Amino acid sequence: MLLQPKPAFSAPCNHCGLCCKEQLCEVGQLAFPGASAPCPGLDVRDDVALCSLVITEAAAGMEPMLAKSLGIGCGCSMPDQDTTEAQIKEFDRVSFIKIYGRARQVA
Asked: Which among 20, 85, 17, 12 has a CA at the least distance from the CA of 45?
């Protein structure tokens, strides 16, 4: 069930739920060992797809570590068929700066 059409890669998220429907992110894999898509953490409220783990984190008044690690607020991170590796790398670079306020340290 897709709530809305998926936005273009890097466009603002519209909470369509496609990313969680098709795969488990690293956080989902840790929280739901052995689970497969759709993510058990996918929570649909008023036709909006949300992450139940992020909802729990926010409701508990915790620092938004999960929300940051998932890049929430950075845009649609699910590549389109024509998305290039260079576009993905640039999106990741810009998202990191948006979340942490600095460039990623290269080891």
From this structure: 17
